[in-house]
Amino acid sequence: MSSLRRVFVARLAGIAVFDPLGDQVGRVRDVVVSFSATRRKPRVLGLVVEVPGRRRVFVPITRVTSIDAGQVITTGLVNMRRFEQRPTESLVLAELLDRAVTVSQPAEEPFEATVEDLAIEQDRPREWSVTKVFVRRGHVSGSLSLRRLTGRRGETLIVDVLDTTGLATRHQGQSAARLLEAYDDLKAADLAEVIHELAPGRRVEVASALDDEKLADVIEELPADDQIEILTHLETERAADVLEFMQPDDAADLLSELPEATQEHYLQHMEPDEAAPLRRLMAYDDNTAGGLMTPEAIILGPDATIAEALAWARREELSPALASLVCVCRPPLETPTGRYLGTVHIQRLLREPPHSPLGAILDKELEPLQPTDSLGTVTRMLANYNLTGAPVVDEDGHLLGVVTVDDVLDHILPEDWREERHEVTHD
């Protein structure tokens, strides 16, 4: 299969990578290049490829046999250890796009420009270099969509990489918005991994460019140190808004890592009805049912129908574990509720007529947890009864929340499980 002689890197983002037998290895996430004083043109070292399991690995360009319009073919030999960027390497999509450069062409005055894309070309079999730069006159920071809205367009042209200066300057960086455009299709957990691997200052800059709801989702997937770093660099009002978007149990866990005065500072800036559940959760020890639970469960009255319960379970924002369990209580139906009556599991809901009331099919045999029950008690209960979630009630029988299996896993896995890294060497 023939390769294209010139390829613009932005067009490689997300395309499939195959082995010689036609089996998909993963998808291209970036191109790794190196600037060297001994070479006139930047050298392409390889590709960052996302493989199953959300792992990003390095595929040396020497193992790429073909780059076509919609696919990359490799030799099939891929090192599955996680990619880690070296100081001498640059990532085209993550770092070089949106960079300010100076263009100096023969018979023309030098001018400032913004990098829109880079073109790579094959010098000889399995050797590629950066040869051309697609630039826009003037330096305009921000995303492409923002430029279109504001009408801030300049002349675009393709220039030789040797006619540009500033491309290799390490201290200059692209706008956070431009980097986020390159990873626009990633889920929150995957984007959190990208952000975690950035330098501390860049991490805060990129995270701050997310909207409040997406930032809340990403923070929930980050290690505690990253969470604190990002939250404390936000303006107080925005930090409070982000905490309101987070799951209450995750927000409470994050606040509990901060000094008491700082906790109260953020809570005071939250809406009272959003801060109240966090205050209740923070009153319990982390390794108890009260500290593990979330108050945002599916809670309905006994007269609600199965059809209504299924409609609640279909809500996109609910995790699978929370969606699998409906708690039935007397009013009020917000935690702490009226008297807890029992639960109905999703499988039972699917077996009964949609018009039937929940009160007629309650599971009353499942003994609810107490907020002071230990992590061990919670774990044994979920394991003994093959549950994905269990209700937590106070001594007066009011529902306080639900503990799910993912809450338990977060606490029984090693503290650094989100930060697992593998040493990698680039061939």
Task: Walk me through what this model shows.
- This protein is an alpha+beta fold.
- The protein is built from 17 helices and 18 strands.
- The chain has helices spanning 92-96, 144-150, 176-182, 188-196, 200-208, 212-220, 224-233, 236-245, 248-256, 260-269, 272-282, 289-292, 306-313, 320-323, 346-351, 375-384, 405-412; strands at 6-8, 16-18, 24-34, 43-51, 55-60, 64-67, 71-74, 89-91, 100-103, 111-124, 127-137, 156-160, 164-165, 298-300, 325-329, 340-345, 389-393, 399-404.
- Strands 2, 3, 4, 5, 6, 7 and 8 form a seven-stranded mixed β-sheet that branches. Strands 1, 9, 10, 11, 12 and 13 form a six-stranded antiparallel β-sheet that branches.
- Strand 3 and strand 4 (43-51) form a beta hairpin.
- Helix 4 (188-196) packs across helix 6 and helix 5 crosses helix 7 (224-233).
- The two termini are 24 Å apart.
- Mean pLDDT is 87; it is low at 142-151 and 421-427.
Secondary-structure class? alpha+beta
Helix content: 25-40%
Distance between the termini: 24 Å
Shape: elongated
β-strand amount: 15-25%
Would you identify the regions where 5 or more consecutive residues have pLDDT less than 50? Answer: 142-151, 421-427
- C-alpha Rg (nearest Å): 27 Å
Mean pLDDT across the residues is 87
- How many strands appear in the DSSP assignment? 18
Largest sheet: 7 strands, mixed
H/I helix tally:
17
